[in-house]
Amino acid sequence: MKRITIIIFLLSLTLLLNGCWSKRELNELAIVMALGIDKTDDEFEVTMQIVNPSEISSKQPSGKNSPVVSYHAKGKSLFEALRRTTALTPRKPYFSHLQMLVIGEELAADGINQSLDFLARDHEVRNDFYIVVADQSTAKEVLNVLTPIEKVPANKLKNSNEGSQKSWASTSTIQLDKLINNLSSDGKSTVLSTIEIVGDKKLGIDPTNVERIETPVILVYTGLSVFKEDKLVGQLNEEESQGYNFIQDELKSTIEIMSCPKGGNLSTEIIKSKTKVKGKIINGTPSIDVTINVDQNVGEVECDIDLSKIKTIHMINKSTSKLIKDKIKKSLDSIQKKYQADVVGFGEAIHRADPKEWKKIKGNWESLFPELKVNVKVNVNTRGLGTVQNSLLYKTKE
Amino acid sequence: MSFSEKNTTNSPDSENKDSQKLILTRLSENIKKIKEVLGNSTDIIIREVGIGKSKKQRIAIIYTDGLADKTAITDFIMESLMLDLDATLDTHSEDVIQYLKDFCLTVGDVNDIADFQTLFRSILNGETVILLDGQPKGISASTKSAKDRAVSQPTTESVVKGPQESFTETLRTNTALIRRKIKSPNLWLKSRVIGKVTQTDVAVMYINGIANDKIVKEVFTRLDRIDIDGILESGYIEELIQDSKYTLFPTVYNSERPDVIAAELLEGKIAILVDGTPFVLIVPAILTSFLQSAEDYYQRSIVSSLIRILRLGGISAALIAPSLFIAITTFHQEMLPTPMLISIASQREGVPFPAFVEAIIMEVAFEILREAGLRMPRTIGPAVSIVGTLVIGQAAVEAGVVSAVMVIIVSITAICSFLFPAYEMSSTIRVLRFPLMVLSAAFGLFGVFMGTMAIILHLCSLRSFGVPYMTPFAPLVPEDQKDAILLFPRSSLLTRPRLINQINTKRGSNPSKNDANN
Questions:
Q1: A391 and A253, same structural domain?
Q2: Which tens digits make up the pLDDT trace of B312-346?
Q3: What pLDDT score does A59 carry?
Q4: Do residue A41 and residue A177 come from a single domain?
Q5: CB contact under 8 A, A20 and B441
Q6: What does the pLDDT read at residue B244?
Q7: Residue B9, burial from CB neighbour count under 10 angstroms (0-12, 13-18, 19+)
Q8: B7: pLDDT confidence band, cut at 50, 70 and 90?
Q9: Is the pLDDT score of A273 beyond 60?
């Protein structure tokens, strides 16, 4: 018995012989924060934004070195291009902490499907990074802009994307799994947030970009880009993007501005929005009902109006409802007529509602979609008026 | 140790042969023999006097200087025998011993002795032996008065609120301290003398009717089985009676607090007191005992429950914090939040060693400091701790030999290992930390979990005097959960631990009255 124990113990020691074969020390990693993919001359060009940890940490950054370094490499496939970067990078790139994937305009117009496979397949890449499209520039140029305050540009891109999605609703935070889901669904279309470089693109790489009080080159989200199949077909502006987010039930908060009867403006803040999209097919003709329930607060009053009256609140509710309907209409006009891409998932909605009929019209969906009738109904409730009741501009009738 | 090696070879055997013999009739021969066996030791005082009316009866008064109370001997033995005794004694009559015992010796505890073994034990215990010429018997009178330490504050288990007394090195004081807490006739005490050379008194205490008879019997069987030359501390006994030799976990609990021992006795456990040490052993021991402090029971139960949870968390941290850190930073970097990863990575810039080596260096350095702090003279303590903090805390980080995070991890681990109310358990955890670190360096989190699982399986296999070590978790005893990880209010603690005593499990229906002792 004792002998067996000793033998088992000695055998178990051999387990340790493999050593630490997959171990990587933290100072052997090049942490990739953002990845850009472009297409040049039928080849993929990747841009990796790698963080320089000692410049980021609060403990005595030298200030002389850039907080991030970018490396570029080309290859016939994305995988090849990424492996080629190991010849340039000081350490092996580590993709688990990827924050942003920027797709160049040219690649987007050409189709993004091929470049997604590696990212979905590789075990090191997680799927919780955001994907955006560069407008009128390459991904390389976007990733070569230094940003102030948030030292790592990838973090700036991520935070701005999240922030504008949450409180302005002009962008959409789309991660890899959702993108692949969208592209493989019935409509086979998707949107991605659009990033734009404002200012001289060449100056963004210069450290002076972050040394001034007013940054000369900045990265701005301008709305959403529409993809039909996997190809970029055009952009939605801010207002249309908000309309899109209303339909998709992805809107968390935004602002509506209406004009008062006696002149001046009144802004309300949407604090909650719940959308229901229902498809139906009547006599072979599909149609969509969109019902939106919105809660809002009065945020700013720049006009002579009596908020203490219930009539006024009704008026505000009605105006907001109309404004939202307008936004949605504009948005649908672009999506249905201009781009003819079912990015809103109406096809899915009809499929869910009536699978049998959907099979019949599925083939014609591309021609049916632009003519699809969409009934929008918006119910608005005002929940609060803020910390004051009537505006300074309100004149009491005495 | 050298002491035992030297003595086992010759003297105990020769002494044994001699001491088996009965006391002889002639006093001079007896005295000669005593002197011979004790090697004419100068602290053995042999006083020969004549007593009786005619002062013709020769007697010898024998005691050990320093162990026996001289005043008592002078006042109650010498004076009684030499001055107050006026009767004519019949030297050869059997009654003379009975007469002396009944009418002369004004001492509490008086016994007959017939053989040399008892004689030597009595003398070396501090008793006074009286031998009479012409009698093959002697008298031993209890005059013990060894120099002992006063009852002082406990040093290893301190509490803020609660009794501030601890056991001393004297067995009698210790039994008295327990008796003072439990004034029940059912508190029984049985003695054994263990150690062929040291002849150490060992007392077993338990509450009859609460303690499990089978375990009591088993305790005596194991104590009687001990064959050793010397018992100098209860640790000797602990090692010789424990169930399994090959375990790092202590399966015998010990405490220097009378209140803890009293509480354990009330739960049906058995206390083993050893003369010469303030640490009293308790069997059977279960894992939860080592995680509980006496003060838990003196506070509000909610506070105690929270503190127990905190303690459990701290203890887990002490065991796995360094290995988790190694595993995550060298194998599973994706598990760290990005800002934290960058922060840790920046601290590791320029550190020459892998995280594992770094951790081992720091842990070993800490263990060295700790051991040095324990062993060195108290006066130079601050010097060492200053050097330690400077070397470990600052210089190593500034020199770039270790990263600052590792210092934090090691310090947390070190502080957490002091959370244990029981000292032995913290040593166990300190030792187990190292194999876990090796596993984590080789297999990452997989290794850490395999290691932890192995530890838990091992714990489940342990038993202490037949009671599973992991009760009340494995086997699960629902009633005992009230005093395990959490501590329920006293009013709901109505039963004693199920597996420890099986006969008398009810603490009483009026808990406030009954539990006042606990």
A1: yes
A2: 999 999 999 999 999 999 999 999 999 899 989 98
A3: 65
A4: yes
A5: yes
A6: 87
A7: exposed
A8: very low
A9: yes
CATH number of the structural domain spanning residue A315? 3.30.300.210
Same domain, A199 and A287: no
ipTM: 0.86
A224 lies in some domain: yes
| Smallest CA–CA distance from B327 into chain A, residue | A23
- Total beta-carbon pairs less than 8 A apart between chain A and chain B: 72
Residue B146 has pLDDT above 80, yes or no: no
First to last CA, chain B: 40
| Backbone dihedral angles phi then psi of residue B488, each to the nearest 5 degrees | -80, 160
* Domain, as residue range, for A78: 25-236
Q: Are residues A100 and A144 in the same domain?
A: yes
Q: A105 vs chain B: nearest CA distance in angstroms?
A: 28
> Which chain B residues contact residue A33 at CB under 8 A?
338
- C-alpha A267/C-alpha A302 separation (Å) is 8
Q: How many domains does chain A have?
A: 2
| Same-domain check for residues A314 and A201 | no
User: Domain check: are A217 and A249 in the same one?
Assistant: no
Best A5, A27, A97 residue to mutate vs chain B (most B CBs within 10 Å): A27
Contact list in B for residue A26 (CB cut-off 8 A) is: 329-330, 333, 341, 344-345, 348, 355
Last residue of a domain, one of A211, A236, A261: A236
pLDDT value of residue A396: 67
Selected residue of B328, B336, B342, B348 to mutate for chain A interface (largest A Cβ count, 10 A): B342
- A57 — contact with chain B (CB < 8 Å)? yes
- Is A66 in the same domain as A136? yes
**A23 contacts B338? CB cut-off 8 A:** no
DSSP labels, B305-348: HHHHHHHHHHHHHHHHHHHHHHHHHHT-GGGS-HHHHHHHHHHH
pLDDT of residue B178: 95
> Can you tell me the distance from the alpha carbon of B157 to that of B426, in angstroms, rounded to the nearest whole number?
13
Q: Are residues A249 and A191 in the same domain?
A: no
Question: What is the model's pLDDT at position A397?
Answer: 58
**pLDDT of amino acid B13:** 46
Flag if A56 and B329 touch (Cβ within 8 Å): no
End-to-end CA distance of chain A: 104
For residue A162, the surrounding DSSP H or E stretch is helix A153-167
The pLDDT value given to residue B451: 94
B338 touches chain A (CB under 8 A): yes
CB A257 within 8 A of CB A245: no
Residue A95 lies in a domain: yes
- pLDDT score at A87: 93
**What confidence tier does B509 reach under pLDDT thresholds 50, 70, 90?**
low
Of A196, A217, A236, the one marking the end of a domain is A236
